Structures are given as C-alpha cells and as structure tokens.
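If your schedule permits, I should be very grateful for your opinion on a structural question. The matter concerns a single protein, recorded as an amino acid sequence and a row of backbone structure tokens. Could you please explain, in whatever detail you think fit, how the structure tokens follow from the sequence? I set the record out below, with my sincere thanks for your time.

——
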Amino acid sequence: MTTLDSCALPRLDLLKIDVEGSQVSVLRGAAETLRRLKPVVWVELRPQLSELSEGDAALTALGYRKDRVLSQTDFIYRPGLTLRGCEPPIFGVSLP
C-alpha cells in the first residue's frame, strides 16, 4: 500500500477522501503532507458508522477544523483557524 506522504507532492490544494471506512488510515498516511501543504480536505464521514467522530478527531489532531457541511456524509475541513469571511467560498453551507 502506498501512502500519500510517500509521494512527496510539491503541491496539494484539495484532498478528496471517500474510502468507505478507511478515512483514519488515509489520514495517518497523509499526516506529513497535510501538515506541510495544508490542503482543503473534502471527506465522506458516515455518522451512523461512527466515522464522523473518529474522522473529526483525526482531522482536529492534524490542526484542521470542520468548515462546511455538504451533505449528511460529506464535509469540508480547512487547516488552522482563519477569520470567517477571509477565506474563499468552497461548496455547501457555512457553519455558524
């Protein structure tokens, strides 16, 4: 299995994760890339399967915060704390 970190990407603006229950494993294998390049993360997390709490905790530990809810299972996370209104719009509904 190849991790995202092993690819040594020079740039990453958006990471889409839809891996049917392996989100935390993907995040572990991308931790250095996420810290270094700070892409926006679009992730599918299914609350009914406890993916939301585990995925949210993993992303929070990497310095990300939930920024938008796209659907009941799709979420946008952004790195660090930014001032509301200073970031470009992405998709979905902004969280209060």
The domain at 12-80 is CATH 3.30.110 (Translation Initiation Factor IF3). The chain has a mean pLDDT of 87. The chain has one domain: 12-80.
